Amino acid sequence: MRLTGAQAVWESLVREGVDTAFGISGGTVIHLYHALPEYPIHHVLTRHEQGAAHAADGYARATGKVGVCVATSGPGATNLVTGLATAQMDSSPVVAITGQVGTSVIGTDAFQEVDIVGITQPITKHNYLVTDVADLPEVMKEAFYIARTGRPGPVLVDIARDVQAAELDFVYPDEVNLPGYYLPGDDLAEPLQRVAQMLEEAERPLIVAGHGIIIAGAEDAFLELVEKANVPVITTLLGIGTMPETHRLCLGMAGMHGEAYTNLALSETDLIVSLGSRFDDRLTGKLDQFANGARIVHVDIDPAEIDKSVAVDVAVIGDLGEVLPALLPLIEARDRQPWLERIQEWRDDSASRDIVGQETDELVPQYVVRQIWEATRGEVIVVSDVGQNQMWEAQYFTHHRRRGLLSSGGLGTMGFALPAAIGAQMGRRDEQVWVTVGDGGFQMNIQELATVVQERLPLKIAILNNGYLGMVRQWQQLFFEGRYSGTPLLGPDFAKVAEAYGIAGFTVREKGEVVSAIEQARAIDGPALINFVVEQEENVYPMVAPGAGVKDMIRRPQGMAR
Amino acid sequence: MEKHTLIALMEDKPGVLSRVSSLFRRRNYNIRSLSVGHSETQDISRMTVVVDGDNRVVEQVVKQLGKLINVTEVLDVTDKPAVIRELALVKVKAGAGQRSEIIELAQVFRGRIVDVGPDSMTVEITGGEDRVNSLVSLLRPYGIEELARTGRVAMVRSGNGTNGNYE
């Protein structure tokens, strides 16, 4: 088949099962865009390339398929950087295609030239510069293979402008030839036997459930294992959705803003079995105080995660989709009543001390999140942004669905939620998708409201508007003498902004209006935005102070109205 | 902190060395020396790198190197019997009066004189790091004008798995 380089790119995408791509055109991708209408790929024009990268990431997280974004050379390519780093930190499979200046001028500081392969080396799983059209099929095949296999991640393919115009005899390879690409295939019998034995011996075992379970699509086997072993589970932020939070054995998210009982369980456990988590510092707190006295089992697909932060007793390197079914028959059911009862005591205590109920008349953000859950019963996909809104969402929305929460965990990218939700909605047209976002993060990618309208996406957007970069303000209040430097934040009238874009906009200032606003937004056949003007100085509690151990939590001050 | 010697084999493609060096920089690994050239296999380069760190750090270096798609094999040879060599070229100030002394010194270290000029001469020495260090320090009083060292290259001794036994 005789194709141009541009056609070869789209042809490869079609062969990889891609039907949606997010991007912005430009001078060095003009050939690519010229060929696009010949292929069954829906292109979503974002308003900024960062939005395209997050949308591809959100699409990937919501569907488990590879997300694709496209950008031109120079500023188009550099605008992808934050999105690629976000995908890299959270192991999200994304293929980014960028145009590069023509091969004859590469290296001459040509107009809109930038070394995007050099720039993105540390924030992609792998990347390519294509200067010969004959290399395109092989490179595209490898890019998708690398992005989706093993520990997934973003792959960038930079294609010189003239390569897109040149012709080739297109043959798509069936297989890749990557002699240096490692995929785990070790014999797991011995380490899994030890894991089963340790579970059998442990009095107070705890499972840490991470994103790896979701990536592997191993939720069924995971739940079966948890129930058979009768072991309580804490999750990481990205591990939310590995099992229903309504389950008796699921304690929810632990770590810096985990509920007190999750962290107390972490500090008293005698065996941690970590499944697809990388012992991030937001989970562990101060490492030398983490799970003292506990034996640690670490199951991960990436050998480099073993012993990186936490020294482990048993390492199992493998795909959880294979590890969990192999472990299941080795596990014996065991009564853990004393341990489960102890956890329940902490849980009851937390419920009365830390968790915001409905006793205040003020409009607090936790109440808003809870009411979204009440109204939807959790039967939606939530895309949260970063900061206080992200933690309240994680605490007060009881997630029970798979891939029901998408959030930037590792990089903590403000501005992620709106474009990622666009990607999620494109991939899951049958679902209601909610964005929970602060007024700070929302203003970082507010331009994507136009994309929402152009694509007629029925997103529901809840802004928790406290007039601050709230998480930093909270740190300033607690650790920096209350000096609110650089955190007070002016915003526009968000409801009017929404309306200017053609989106239904609401403003809610009173607690009594919350429920009806949510219902109205849900009833609208199209996008809706609610600006919840919430109590400005509400904090996220409990909090493990930076540099402290997880045991030493700052609890909600007693006797406060909220 | 101790010095570890690693051998890495990698595809001979543009940008691979930059991937490796950028990895060392961003993960804050401390490199003593890095030497790279062709291996016995076509299109595969061989790198010897000397890195500072305790066992845990070096284990991370090995694993992170292994994650690079273009790196095909990585081996820590620190505790294996290995031939380790370095080459140095030393251009040392030498008038007619010093030449014979310098030639004698070079001979003691099995070095060779590879260039002689009116006011200087160039000594080539190959050997372990200690031997190179010793000669360099003995030549220093004469005035070293230029010094070029390759850094370590290493090869595991036969019978200890030079092939197919990389981690």
Structural notes for this entry:
The complex is a heterodimer of chains A (562) and B (167). Chain A is built from 23 helices and 22 strands. With 562 residues, chain A is α/β, with parallel strands linked by helices. In chain A, helix 17 (388-396) links the parallel strand 15 (381-384) and strand 16. Helix content of chain A is 36%, strand content 17%. The relative contact order of chain A is 0.11. Chain B is α+β, with helices and mostly antiparallel strands and 167 residues long. Chain B folds into two domains: 2-80, ACT domain (Alpha-Beta Plaits, 2-Layer Sandwich); 83-153, ACT-like. Chain A, domain 2 (Alpha-Beta Plaits). Helix content of chain B is 27%, strand content 42%. Chain B has four helices and nine strands. In chain B, strands 5, 6, 7, 8 and 9 form a five-stranded antiparallel sheet that branches. Chain B has a four-stranded antiparallel sheet with strand order 2-3-1-4, with helices on one face. The longest helix of chain B is centred in the middle third of the chain and has 13 residues, at 55-67. Chain B starts with a strand and ends in an 11-residue tail after the last strand. At the A-B interface, loops of A face helix 1, helix 2 and strand 4 of B.
